[in-house]
Amino acid sequence: MRYVKLPQENVYEFLERLKNFGKLYAPVKISEKFYDFREIDDVRKIEFHYNRTIMPPKKFFFLPRETMFKFSISKAEYEEVVENVEPFVIFGLHACDIFGLKIMDTIYLDEFPDKYYKIRREKGIIIGISCMPDEYCFCNLRETDFADDGFDLFLHELPDGWLVRVGTPTGHRIVDKNIKLFEEVTTQDICNFRDFEKKRHQSFRYHEDWGNLRYLLELEMEHPMWDEQSELCLGCGNCNLTCPTCRCYDVQDIPNLDGDTGVRIRRWDSCQLRSHGLVAGGHNFRPTKKSRFMNRYLCKNAYNEKLGISYCVGCGRCTYFCPAGISFVRNLRTILGFEEKSCPPEVSEEIPKRGFAYASNIRGEGI
Amino acid sequence: MENRKIRIGFYALTSCYGCQLQFAMMDEILQLIDKAKIECWYMLNRNSSEEREVDIAFIEGSVSTKEEVELVKKIREKAKIVVAVGSCAVHGGVQSWGKEKELEQLWKTVYGDGKVKFEPKMAEPVEKFIKVDYKLYGCPPEKRDFLYALGTFLVGSWPEDIDYPVCVECRLRGNSCILIEKGEPCLGPVTVAGCDARCPAYSVACIGCRGAVGYDVAWFDSLAREFKKKGFTKEEILDRMRIFNAHNPKLEEMVNKIFEEGE
To answer: Where do the structural domains in chain A lie, given as residue ranges?
Structure first.
């Protein structure tokens, strides 16, 4: 890997020059407390020390709403609407969000490429930056706190600038075209990088092993936590909509008034919504708020087999942006037995059947 | 339906006529000339009659007089599809806010000793009296929803109902969350989406003008618990939630439950 140093005095010039590679997006403050990736006009508005953006960077590739195709009923034809995407640069992604995109890639690129996602992914330049965790972060437990790939450039904060890792040929091109802005990495820079990483690692709130979590979740389907916490849930979908790896969408056909033509659109969906588990014939796989609540916990803690990590990257958004103040981390730690002791279990005469398949109060009657 | 035009009726009960004005002003309405015949829509066509049979009947306004009870029954008999349009028709509208008070008291407050030709009653949603097949939410409803419903009927299909809350669109639009950030009593989590979170986009907390989400997924209880934590009283919470949901059968019970829980 190639390493260069971007001295602090050249940062804004560098950001300005990024605009030569495409429209520039970066984190800015959008309200009193919250940040989001927005198009950048004045590079001095960019926030280098933001905690997390309300919208995850997947929004640039998998659009919140988009038209998929136009159709004509009389001609029995459809025509895909794939926009002509211009190159663009997203500056300032944290490592967890880069992992988020890698997870999205395994879904939308690997097996059956989604052409709407693919064209944007090909045109997007990704520039990561290092960060210090806040109390909501748990990417260390998800092993997503340091990105090995998935970026063109990655900037690590130094006291007097940034140590830059170059990840792709595009990254090389950006550095080479602006070579006068960069310096060689010195021994002092390496020491500073190591210190930063050490401090970052120590700043995480929890240092523990979550390896058995997915199995404990399955075993603890009847834990009282599920009832207590799902009762608080507003079913608003914020957790899914701010998640960097939630990838469900809903489609709808919108006919024109000519009684013949129309468009099919898609928008981000949420498994906390009633119709997510609703199928033809009116059956709902997740008919209760509790079953929908549990679904997200199971989905996020499942393995992504390609990457060998869970679908949750530990960014903390689902807790930070929950209007009901439900803590995903606390609930998982309850299941893990780190919050409170749930043993010994109640003794029963019958051999209890445990696991999702047996939980009739979750799956509904008569299944 | 190849050669026949779809017959449309637009009827008004007690309301501000804002819903039909919203639709009458749409440029797209011209595209309907080929496809539809307007049998009754006084705002557009003076040659209207409430006596004619129609394929789709749009009804705005709340049922607030004895005559209107008869009118909605007649519309139902003469229409294949009945669509309730706007907050008044769907949920009883703001005029239902004073549901707890006596009719006589409400009447006196508004009209004093004035005399009118009709016999008043408490404002109620259309669905209380007849079967409603589809609903267009909002005060006023969105043109987009109207076009979607009409377009879908015109291709011989059935439009989807909106069963998710404003929060979804608020996030999709990229707004900040004022419920979390400002602690204001935003009704986004219990209110039917479709407005593209217009008010929160301008930092105004949702007042719920589209009414509560149906299918028993409007969690008034969980939201009331949040409001309570933010320091609102039961009366303040009920007052706000009732503005557009006075007839919701679950509202009071769900909010009361939270205040009986104790801390």
So the answer is: 2-62+80-203, 213-253+269-358
CA distances from A343 to A223, A300, A333, A334 (A): 11, 25, 14, 12
Q: Which of B212, B164, B170, B163 is nearest to B187 (CA)?
A: B212
A 10 A CB-CB count for A71 gives 18
User: Is B165–A237 a contact, with Cβ atoms under 8 angstroms apart?
Assistant: yes
How many Cβ atoms sit within 10 Å of the Cβ of residue B33? Answer: 10
Among B120, B154, B188, which residue terminates a domain?
B154
Cβ contact, residue pair B219, A233, below 8 Å: yes
Residue B159 lies in a domain: no
**Structural domains in chain B (count):** 2
B55 assigned to some structural domain: yes
* A262 to B176: CB separation less than 8 angstroms, yes or no: no
Closest CB from B174, B181, B189 relative to A32:
B181
Model confidence over A22-67: pLDDT tens digits?
999 999 999 999 999 999 999 999 999 999 999 999 999 999 999 9
| pLDDT tens digits, B192-226 | 999 999 999 999 999 999 999 999 999 999 999 99
Q: Do A235 and B157 touch (CB under 8 A)?
A: no
Q: Is A232 on the interface with B (CB under 8 A)?
A: yes
Domain that holds residue B236: 166-261
Is the peptide bond prior to B159 cis by the omega test (within 30 degrees of 0)?
no
The per-residue b/e assignment along A255-289, b for 16 or more CB within 10 angstroms, e otherwise, is bbbbbbbbbbbbbbbbbbbbbbbbeeeeebebbbb
Q: Are B26 and B142 in a shared domain?
A: yes
Do A321 and A242 form a contact (C-beta atoms < 8 A)? Answer: yes
CA distance to partner chain B, nearest, from residue A100 (Å):
18
Flag whether residue A2 sits within 8 Å of chain B, measured between CB atoms: no
Q: What is the interface size between A and B, counted as CB pairs within 8 Å? A: 127
Residues B41 and B114 in one domain: yes
Distance CA B204, CA A225 (A): 34
Residues of B with CB under 8 A from a CB of A: 28, 31-32, 34-35, 147-148, 150-152, 154-155, 157, 160, 163-165, 167-168, 171-174, 176-177, 179-182, 188-190, 203, 215, 217, 219, 222-223, 225-226, 229
Contact A275 B35 (CB under 8 A): no
A7 φ, ψ (degrees, to nearest 5): -65, 150
Task: Give the closest residue to B164 by CA, choosing from A267, A262, A224.
Answer: A267
Contact A36 B174 (CB under 8 A): yes
Nearest CB to B225 within list A54, A232, A270: A232
Which residues lie closer than 8 Å to B51 by C-beta, 6 or more apart?
B74, B78
User: Is the pLDDT reported for residue A367 higher than 50?
Assistant: no
- ipTM entry: 0.92
DSSP codes, B187-208: -GGGBB--S-SHHHHTT-----
Which among A32, A73, A232 has the least Cβ separation from residue B222? A232
Nearest CB among A54, A234, A235 relative to B176 is that of A54
Mean pLDDT by 10 residues, chain B (263 residues): 80 94 89 89 92 96 95 97 97 88 87 85 95 96 95 94 97 95 95 97 96 96 96 96 94 95 66
Q: How far is A287 from chain B (nearest CA, A)?
A: 10
Inform me whether the C-beta atom of residue A10 falls under 8 Å from chain B C-beta atoms: no
Cβ distance of B171 and A241 shorter than 8 Å: yes
Q: Do B147 and A257 touch (CB under 8 A)?
A: yes
